[in-house]
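User: Could you check the structure of this?
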Amino acid sequence: MTRRFSLLCLLLVLPLAACDDKFGPQDWSEAPDTTVIYSLSRPEHLGRASAFDFAIPRGAPRAVESAFSPGQWDIALVDEAGGLAFAPAGAFQGQTSRAAIATMTGVPIEEVKRAPRDDDFVQEPVILQIGPVYIARSRGVGTVFGTCTYYGKFEVLEVNQEEGWIRFRTVVNPNCNNRDLVPPDSD
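Assistant: Sure, the predicted structure tokens are below.
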């Protein structure tokens, strides 16, 4: 192979890999996944999933204290005055993160089609309620060619303040820097 041909092949492949370690857009489903996580504020839940990672396809619960998930989460469930809240990673002392939350009221989760602009996100704890739809922006995830941010939507199905846990359902877009919250073929 000539050097010029190798360079041409590399230039053809780079755009496909620019935003993701996988090649091209990822197929995904709008079918929500249901998850239970536990308050990080409560010692009895030590080692249980108390955070959620929006930066992987379909998202995943994480135990913040686990050696296998240091910094691999975006929002954590905590006790706040007034109830249980999701706190973005950057809300914790010593943490730097782009993760944030936006709240939409009066709209069913199925009708939330796109993540809002960055000005609508907050990086502070948000008290959770049944009814609103929450939009999450993930931390920045480094790739070979830059940084990716992922977006997901979720709604709280059940809050157990006394025992310190919530059950919620999520839909996560697995495509780098893409604010769409419904798959392209679902319109």
